[in-house]
Amino acid sequence: MTLLHRIGTRLRRPQGVPWRSAGLRTESLSADESVRSTGWVFDNKTGEVSLESFTAGGDNEVRRYLKLFGFTDDSTRTLSMVEIGSGIGRMTAGFSKRFAMVYAADVDAAFLERCRETVFHHGTPPALRTVHVADGRSLDVATGSVDFAFSYITLQHCGTDDALSLVSEALRVTKTGGQVALNFRTWTMLDTALVPLGGLVRVLWRVPKAAKHMARIRALTRLGWQANRLSPDDVLASIGLDLIGTRLRDVTIVHSPRRRVRVSAEGVRRLAVRRVHPSHWWLVARLA
Questions:
Q1: DSSP characters for 253-274?
Q2: Which of 5, 102, 146, 286 has an alpha carbon 20 to 30 Å from 206's alpha carbon atom?
Q3: Is the dihedral of CA 44, 275, 62, 13 positive or negative?
Q4: Distance (Å, whole) CA 109 – CA 26
Q5: CA gyration radius for the chain?
Q6: So what's the pLDDT on residue 206?
């Protein structure tokens, strides 16, 4: 990486403040070293973890979620997809083995470098394309060009406006008849404290000397990720309720059976799935 590119990468990271130190660190580390030293950023583990075990866990999740969303083992072989929030490729490697084309999109260019490395070692490299979400809210992917748009544990880390913009972008880039599966986090009682504290941490993170030390403290970094909480009504309203049944069909809110989910819009199915975290939910829909 050239000096100019390094400087440019730093300047383009303001919208991803809680990720900044991890991103800068991955510029000088291999994917395997990144997992071992900052694994909790990506997979909650450090120490006895390797890139191989890291991607094996992601591969299991890929298999499970594709089955949940109605894909069979062979039905994705000729399809294309975009993964919004690929990180360093924990699930991307698995997707690359199952889809003909995978666009891995992330806010941090250094993460995408490591993502390419991860897929090289544990995926199918010819299937991979990377997309730098430099502004934190738009995808440099052609309109109506992918069969499947996917995002998992990413949109909750964005500012509300950026998250909703990425929802709109996911719909834009998906083909007619294609499918979206987008993961969100909704409110719990604990969030009345977590979300304001997260905002405070992100403010402090903009102080260079403070950020350098804060990035080494797992609890503070995790607080900094708490950027938004969105309900199904919030997201569906941003899409446009008039589009349900016209532009969008088979709209399903997938949630935990341990959590009641309110959906005001008509024509939206609710599906309780045991392995969904109680504070998470998914928007699954097809483009009409």
A1: EEE-TTS-----STT-EEEE-T
A2: 5
A3: negative
A4: 10
A5: 18
A6: 77
Helical H segments across the chain, by residue range = 3-11, 20-26, 31-42, 51-68, 92-96, 109-122, 160-173, 191-204, 208-214, 218-224, 232-239
Here the tokens at position 190 are: 């604990």
Number of Cα atoms under 13 Å in the Cβ half of residue 216: 4
User: pLDDT by residue (tens digit) across 179-219?
Assistant: 999 999 998 888 888 888 888 888 887 777 776 677 667 77
> Minimum mean pLDDT among 14-28, 131-145, 165-179: which range?
14-28
Instruction: Give domain limits for the chain.
Output: 1-185
Q: In the sheet where 101-106 sits, what is the strand order?
A: 128-132, 101-106, 80-84, 146-151, 174-185, 280-287, 248-255, 269-272
Residue 279: Cβ within 10 Å count:
18
Architecture per CATH, domain 1-185, reads as 3-Layer(aba) Sandwich (3.40)
Across 89-121, b (16+ Cβ under 10 Å) vs e yields bbbbbbbbbbbebbbbbbbbbbbbbbbbbbbee
Residue with tokens 């995978």: 102
Q: Above 60 in pLDDT, residue 243?
A: yes
∠ CA 84-90-95, rounded to 5°: 65
